[in-house]
Automatic annotation (TrEMBL):
Binding annotation for ATP: G121, D122, R146, S216
Annotated residues for binding of Mg(2+) 1: D47, D122
Annotated binding of Mg(2+) 5, by residue: D217
Annotated positions binding substrate: H54, D264, Y318
The protein's name: Thiamine-monophosphate kinase
Domain of life, source organism: Bacteria
Keywords per UniProt: ATP-binding, Kinase, Magnesium, Metal-binding, Nucleotide-binding, Thiamine biosynthesis, Transferase
Amino acid sequence: MALTEFSLIKQFFADATQKRQDVIVDIGDDCAVLSCPEDSNIAISIDTLVSGIHFFADVDPYTLGHKSLAVGLSDLAAMGATPAWFTLALTLPELNENWLSAFAEGMATLAAEHDIQLVGGDTTKGPLSISIQVHGLVRKGAQLQRSQAKSSDKIYITGTLGDAGAALQKRLASWQPEILSEADWSFLTKRLQQPTPRLAISQKVLPYVNAAIDISDGLLADLGHILTASGKGAKINLDAIPLSPSLKKIDRKRALELALSSGDDYELCFTVPAEHVPAIKALNLDIQQIGEITDEQQIVLLNENGQPSLLDITTKGYDHFA
Ligand code: ADP
Ligand code: MG
């Protein structure tokens, strides 16, 4: 039987994710109705991924389903929120059953990992685009905001930086250093196509953090947002920037440029007052201290010789309308 808008919703989305107790009215009515615990507030974020802008039209739909949800989950992690519900606005050029099934599976697999339920959406015809709005719960007053960095806070990042940027350069600029093997490229490509939202780390460090952001547009740009919002600057020790084994193989300057300025990593950057550093260390997480917050409103990069170079914190990063 031919797929229609309604059979599509029923087949691929109505039961795509596990059911939560706090969903009072599920997919199928005019609105979803959700119940929020009394001690929490709701954190909301929406992201749109447009074919040809945010992903290549020929991308594997399973990974696209994963990434469409991952970028929103990353925002919840940056806010210190725990995932609860999401809605999905899908614009499709055609009804392709294989494509939809893989897309829904990629999305649902990540949703199951984070106990987030799809509770509604909209389906329209047009150029391929995906909007996901995520809703998370954050204990009253416990949200992590960009504006709360304090002088001499230590700056931490999760995971490694620059991997997604390297994969993007290969696809966009045919940049392909010989030193990188098949295995390196499959690792780097996975980092671009299926980022890991750092919710587990976020929940563990939450009690100790002053300010946080997720790195979607590059460390300098996104740390820059913390600094601007907080009226602060930062000193970054380039030697401390964590690079993956794959990125360590390439020219160091190139690797650092990717780590500082390329986007799509979806790691977290957060600041911690010095008195909480022992507690953070004791957690034994995949995080790295890369520098500290300063009073002067600039980013100072310290290279391996301890030589500082000044960067205007407003100059870097991706701007869709630039
Ligand atoms: P309405 O016309 O009232 O907006 P729709 O016909 O758009 O309702 O959608 C019917 C139901 O299916 C609604 O509950 C809506 O939230 C849900 N829905 C529509 N598209 C999607 C989708 N892509 N994913 C999940 N739920 C969807
Ligand atoms: Mg509708």
